[in-house]
Amino acid sequence: MSTSDHAAGRDQGTGRTHAVLRSTADLPAPWAAICGASVDVVQGRWDGPRGLGAADPCPDCRRLAED
Ligand SMILES: [Zn+2]
After folding, report:
1. 16, 31, 39, 47: which could form a disulfide with 3 (CB 3.0–4.6 Å)?
2. What was the pLDDT predicted at 51?
3. So where are the chain's domains?
4. In Å, how far from its chain's centre is CA 10?
5. What is d(CA 55, CA 24) in angstroms, rounded to the nearest whole number?
């Protein structure tokens, strides 16, 4: 699995970004990140500026998305 298989999700409460599976990103809210956290918005690619490039990417999602 590569990072391009994931979308970027954001937890509005913490500001942390999480990875969301592409296959579930197109479904209606709420979304679950691959680490199990819930996210409020999905906003582009995980390997883009609003995912891994954001201020606080989730370390668990980073590790899981690279497996
Ligand atoms: Zn996460």
Report:
1. 47
2. 97
3. 3-66
4. 7
5. 24
